[in-house]
Amino acid sequence: MPKQTVSQFLYALGSRISDGVANLAAHPVAQIGVVLFCLAWFLLPLGEDATAVLTLVLSVMAITLTQMVLNQQKRHEVALHLKIDELIHAMKGARDEVMGVETASEAELEALRITGDKAEEVLAQRRGKPAVTTEVGP
Description:
- By secondary structure, this protein is mainly α.
- It has helices spanning 6-26, 28-43, 48-90, 106-127.
- The longest helix has 43 residues, at 48-90.
- The mean pLDDT is 80.
């Protein structure tokens, strides 16, 4: 196995930490803890300085946690796209050009849709059935 570079190691470490924190924050006990913490924060007379510090800490935590959850969702989305691409590639009769379409421009997507409609029309004509088209706008 080739040796990891420092950047690969840091990326893998960051991904593991991000994934772990996102999973921990999604746990029901963590959700209850946050609600209880917020209730205590509002009900206890802490003073202006403590309230300002808590506001700062919670703001930083909210931004950080949001980024961690988005990172986790991005990795899951990439994995799902890879699985779908593999299925498209393995399916007989599927159009391989739709693999990786998530990175295509709007014009490329429209061109693929049109070629797919034309392929459906040809297939329907071969079977002797009317084709169903999905015309969109002018």
